[in-house]
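yo

u said u wanted the structure for the complex thing, so here. seqs first:
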Amino acid sequence: MTTVSDRPAPPGAPSRGGPVPAASGAPRRPRRRTSPDGLWPWLFVGPLVAGIGVFYLWPIVQTAWYSLTETGPFGGSAFAGLANYVEMFQDPELYVSLGNTLLYTAIVLIGIPIAVGLASLLNLPGLRLAAFYRVLFFLPYVAMPTAIAMVWRVIFNGDFGLVNHALALFGVDGPYWISTPGAATVAVAIVGLWSSLGFSMIVLAAGLKNIPPELYEAAELDGASRWRQFRSVTVPLLTPSVFFVTIVTVIAGFQLFDLLYAILGSSNPVLTRSMSLVYFFYREGFVNNDRGYAAAIAMFVFLVIGIATAIQFRLQKRWVQSD
Amino acid sequence: MTEQATAALVSLPPRRAGPGRPRRGGSYAFAHIVLGVGGLVMAFPFLWQLVMSLSTNAEVQSVTPVFWPAEAQWGTYARVFERLPFLEQLGNSVLVTVIRTLAQILFCTLAGYAFARMRFRGRGALLAVVLSILMVPSQVYLLSQYQIIQGLGLLDSVGGLVLPGLFSAFGTFLMRTAFLAMPAELEEAARLDGANPLQVFWKVMLPLARPTISVLAITTVLWSWNELLWPLVVTTYGDRMPLSAGLATLIGDRTTDYPLVMAASLLAMAPVLVLFVLLQRRVIEGLASSGLK
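structre next:
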């Protein structure tokens, strides 16, 4: 037990001023920003800051540097200026993987309007089984991507998969999804949509809950139909949630890796034409061990996500209602 | 307190008086049809996986789908443990997840508290640096993290799997927000009673932060259990991998033992799915409010 006398707290300003007794009489600089906490804050912050510094901050600086170096065959490296970037922008594989990433992201974004509809149904007052539906829709989001990828591989199998079986019922001859470049991306994106739908729904449902019921009552008194209420009350007031979900979905979309890797399989010959940006990065960095080139790709991913996010914030003013 | 309030809000249907009420009390047949069909689509792959895990390999690959196996092959689940280093991988997953979750709770609550409640030189700048990490995609630090782990001789070890994930900028941000929202009176009272900052933190603030700590724990468990890229990078041997990476190596062979893969996948997902179903309200609210995985 520490006694009170150890830490004299002037009753007037308990959180300001140093613990040093004024008896010393030494002239002190006025208003030092350091607090009575002394070294305590550093004890609290130290472990995390050290960890973040070593494992995140320093690696970011290092990757930026690596992207300017050429990796030698034995792991050494030499400064190469922008050579990696020049090579990257001339590499057709960059555009193939960028194209696939964009296609994937675009398809997954289709999930957002679907989620708006489903969330408004889920939020109907007094709906029975709502908790049950919520669990069902959220299940794919918490499930391990590599584990669910295994079923979807079979569902999309060209010979005995259910998708092609269903298509055959309509006389359509389905492709070998997993081994046809464009089809593979679509198949992966369908799984991506399926697994992220629940997350969007839940965020949107929370947004819906924040809409004051009085607004609906007022609209109803004005004789607005349910559809009109949805358009004039729900949609505008939901735009901030939609914006948030869109940002998150796009960022996640640009980082596609797990599902693609697990659905296609690392030895799939079609991978070079179906890969995403992050798979491209992974292959160059950890399969081909070309550190400098992989670093340049990583910086490119960073840049693309940054640009996409900046564009969305720009466009936000046009459609997001901020009270 | 707060979490109970939120839980109550979520569980109770918003009561609406007024003219709209009678019309809305209907059976919602349309909503049930749409949500029911949608829910089935969501659940179907899991059910289909179960069916396939109980089928023979021939049944899985039959061109006319076999929706229920002639004889349920429960033995496949035993084979998962015989044929695969499943127990080792499960052990790795559990160990990695538990260590990371405890470490993140420790480091992130401590740092989050200091960033929210203590004054010290450089606090603003340090916080800005930590939060800026949030905007950087993981690929940017992966190469270098790998080299650090390699340099430490920790490739193919639990240490290597665990290490970077012990620290989280997101967790710090989450905890700081929670501590910022807390009333100052209790803290000041404890200080006047002579408690040192660590005692104030441990005895007063940490218990109050429990709801947010559980959000942090849930997100860390999910993220750690399901993560693929980092384990693929730092482990090469099957028995050194966690389940997520171990499963990914099962595919691509010319002769795939589908039932085995399905059974292993279900078993690998099971712990987190069970946890989710048990804690679903907390998990959903936590993830929805944190907005990040």
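Confidence is low (pLDDT under 50) at residues 1-26 of chain A. The radius of gyration of chain A is 28 Å.
cya
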